[in-house]
Amino acid sequence: MIILADYREKNSLVCSELVSLGSNVEFQELKVGDFIIGEVVIERKTVSDFISSMLSKHLPTQLEEMKQYEKRLLIIEGIEEQELYNDEPGGINGNAIRGMLLSISLEAKCPMIFTKDYADTAKFLHLIKKRQEKSPKEISLNAKKKNLSFNEQKQFILESFPGVGPVKAKKLLEKFKTLKNIANADEPALMEILNAKTTYFKWLLDN
Are 68 and 195 in contact (CB under 8 A)? Predict the structure, then answer.
């Protein structure tokens, strides 16, 4: 399984560490998150990034966009290198940070992992990849009945892609009619149905 990373992560030590762990990393301009692994979208922030995105109010927007994925994760990196709660003069109030962490968990319903450094983050990402590889596909082709109509066969093929269930498969066929048209469609057109899963879907079609 390929780990899709946002192009802005290209020079990060996390990606270098992922490669050393044996993961295949491909860089793209991701609409949501910093990494996409199978059906999981991951937003990675250092402690300073986390604080900055709080102050700029960019973090709530990112969390809302991540809801397009059923499986999402926020990684806060560098928890041992930098103090998360800084009540010194000029620093952001510790309770404001605690309140944001509660909002992320209870309101945005986004799981969080705190890592000590880039190497620890890479190990978590590598483990997610291994777990995704072991996960069963949404629909097993072998488990379906053999006597499918032509349209059912096309729908069946689409449903085998991660994140494309029966509803989205039917909508794709209603809009594009044929598998060839779907394969040739551009991302904006697919985005209307697949939302944030479009990038990974297109990557699978093109490889």
Answer: yes
What DSSP character marks residue 196?
Answer: G
CA distance 175 to 181: 9
Q: Considering 109, 134, 159, which residue would you say is the last residue of a domain?
A: 134
pTM of the model: 0.66
Q: Which domain holds residue 49?
A: 2-134
Q: Is 42 exposed, middle or buried (0-12, 13-18, 19+ CB in 10 A)?
A: buried
What is the domain count for the chain? 2
DSSP state letter for 92: P
Kindly state whether residues 129 and 157 are assigned to the same domain: no
Ranges of residues in the chain whose predicted pLDDT is under 70: 81-82, 86-91, 135-148, 207
30 and 118 assigned to the same domain: yes
